[in-house]
Amino acid sequence: MLMKPNSAECLCELMAEFERNNERYKVMGKGSNLLISDNGVDCPVILISSDLGKVVFHGDEVICQAGMPLISLCKEVAKIGLSGLEFAYGIPGSVGGAVYMNAGAYGGEMKDIVKSCTYADEKGILHSMERDEMDLSYRHSFFSGKPYVIVDVTLKLKNGDKKAITEKMQELMSKRIEKQPLEYPSAGSTFKRPKGDFAGRLIESAGMKGFTFGGAQVSEKHCGFVINKSNASFNDVISVIKTVKTRVKETSGKDLECEVIIWE
Question: How far apart are CA 151 and CA 178, in angstroms?
């Protein structure tokens, strides 16, 4: 069952109802860092969509609901000359998901610009949280693995030149297109960056560039991505991930950790 709340009140009512019934659930944004079993999931899914995607500007502060696409927010702040979010242009997630994962690229991270957020706990009660309480680190936050839902986020940006902001965004998008296998479906960057190294380098050094199982493949363009080359199944992708992790461990002694969240 897929449920799309169109207000914070509706979301809180849903969560309170699940709590009363002792019913577990999952929460999904745009799904850009998510790999879901072909068999689906065995519980309701709350979809935080663009129905919860409003944005309000107060000077250099931006209050944005969690369901707004991150790319759309980048465009909106660029229009009014607010800088600081350029790094996120091209990240295909939602604002809430970006905070949940502390999304980052090209030297920037959400923790650099987040001021505070509002979230609903498992009982559907709203809370406010300041950035210093969010435990934001590499692809991690206070919310990781918890049954809470980010409702809105306040970002602190800075005034800048509209033309320069737009040019920077276009430059970073060009880099993405050049370096990432965006021509194929994928769940995004598959593996987290190991401390002091790069997943792509370790995978290529292990001889796994282009490794294929079924319809899934380690991208030949960027080894950090497992792509859907040809009608790949969930099990195809999982098989590639497991084989890559095993081979990298054998050749480098390092354990790769998935950045992609897996629902089985």
Answer: 34
